């Protein structure tokens, strides 16, 4: 099953109805100057390229689009508390140290 078919199944299973796709271009929503490079020559989203558009937006907002900021954060954090010293802690212990105890 192709990605488009999977997306259509997910949309149908969730009860979401896509009535029409119009006026959506290949840029990140809210950032018209942030063009999604794979489709720079194709300006509008349609049912045939919807899954590509969704994948590109996800990549731009939670992966490659923020990788530079994540690296700068890690570098700054490492200056305050070297990350290599944190390797002795588990994920849960780090969460407790950084975020505090959560009431159950």
TrEMBL record:
Key words of the record: Transferase, Ubl conjugation pathway
InterPro entries: HECT_dom, Hect_E3_ubiquitin_ligase, HECTD1/TRIP12-like
Annotated HECT domain residues: 44-104
PROSITE patterns in alphabetical order: HECT
GO molecular function: ubiquitin protein ligase activity
GO BP terms in the entry: proteasome-mediated ubiquitin-dependent protein catabolic process; protein polyubiquitination
Pfam families: HECT
PANTHER family: E3 UBIQUITIN-PROTEIN LIGASE TRIP12, E3 UBIQUITIN-PROTEIN LIGASE UPL4
Stated name of the protein: HECT domain-containing protein
Lineage of producing organism: Eukaryota, Viridiplantae, Streptophyta, Embryophyta, Tracheophyta
């Amino acid at each position: 099953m192709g990605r488009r078919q999977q997306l259509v199944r997910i949309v149908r299973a969730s009860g979401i109805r896509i009535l029409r796709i119009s006026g959506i271009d290949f840029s990140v929503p809210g950032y018209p100057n942030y063009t999604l490079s794979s489709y720079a020559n194709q300006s509008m989203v349609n049912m045939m390229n919807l899954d590509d558009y969704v994948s590109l937006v996800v990549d731009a907002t939670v992966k490659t689009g923020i990788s530079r900021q994540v690296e700068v954060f890690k570098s700054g954090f490492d200056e305050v508390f070297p990350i290599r010293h944190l390797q002795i802690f588990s994920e849960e212990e780090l969460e407790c140290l950084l975020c505090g105890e959560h009431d159950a």
